[in-house]
Amino acid sequence: MNGEFIAFIALALVAIGGGVLMLNVTKVVHMIVSLVFTFISIAGLYVLLSAEFIAGVQVLIYSGAITIIMLFGIMLTKHQDQEQSSPGIAKRLLIFAGIAAFAFVFYLGIYQLDFGTEAEALHENNTEQIGVSLFTEYVIPFELTSVILLVALIGAIVLAKRDDQEEANDK
């Protein structure tokens, strides 16, 4: 067993543990913290795959921005705290059977996957390769994405102004 394998096992266990913990804790802040553990461990897996750019984006975007947006969204909305009954044994067995079937199909898909030849230049300058590919082959989808984000931002501002005007008119 080499160090890369041990790091993979540790990061995979943290990612799975964070996901399971997020589903089982009851406080929202604890859910967010376990989600951050999952996001950071996935970034570590990207580093093991020599995808440093994707790992950096994972930490910056998901572990930082998305988590903060989720936390603010949850904290700024009103919640109706209601007790939910725990699922019965039949429902739990059905859920487990569904998860097992999904895992089996996923395993078969990965097991029969054939990539052909190995990519030799994958580990060399991958950030540069992403940049060159993004701004040469995919420049139009990249620019369309920025226009869509701009339209969404303008729409959010218009909706916020409309709500402010309605509240001012109601008073």
TrEMBL record:
InterPro entries named among the record's database cross-references: NADH_UbQ/plastoQ_OxRdtase_su6, Nuo/plastoQ_OxRdtase_6_NuoJ
Q: Does the keyword Cell membrane apply?
A: yes
Cellular component annotations (GO), alphabetically ordered:
plasma membrane
**Alphabetically ordered keywords of this record:** Cell membrane, Membrane, NAD, Oxidoreductase, Quinone, Transmembrane, Transmembrane helix
What Pfam families has UniProt attached to this entry?
Oxidored_q3
Task: Identify the domain of life.
Answer: Bacteria
Q: Under which main EC class is this enzyme filed?
A: translocase
> For this protein, what reaction is catalysed?
a quinone + NADH + 5 H(+)(in) = a quinol + NAD(+) + 4 H(+)(out)
Recorded GO terms, molecular function? NADH dehydrogenase (ubiquinone) activity; oxidoreductase activity; quinone binding
Enzyme Commission designation: 7.1.1.-
For this protein, the record's Gene3D superfamilies field holds: NADH-ubiquinone/plastoquinone oxidoreductase chain 6, subunit NuoJ
Q: How does it sit in the membrane?
A: Multi-pass membrane protein
User: Which parts pass through the membrane?
Assistant: 6-25, 32-49, 55-77, 89-110, 138-160
As for subcellular location, the record says: Cell membrane
Task of the protein: NDH-1 shuttles electrons from NADH, via FMN and iron-sulfur (Fe-S) centers, to quinones in the respiratory chain. Couples the redox reaction to proton translocation (for every two electrons transferred, four hydrogen ions are translocated across the cytoplasmic membrane), and thus conserves the redox energy in a proton gradient.
Stored PANTHER family? NADH-UBIQUINONE OXIDOREDUCTASE CHAIN 6
**Family statement drawn from the similarity comment of this UniProt entry:** Belongs to the complex I subunit 6 family.
User: Under which name does UniProt file this protein?
Assistant: NADH-quinone oxidoreductase subunit J
Q: Native species of this protein? A: Metabacillus arenae
In the record, what lineage is assigned to the organism producing the protein?
Bacteria, Bacillati, Bacillota, Bacilli, Bacillales
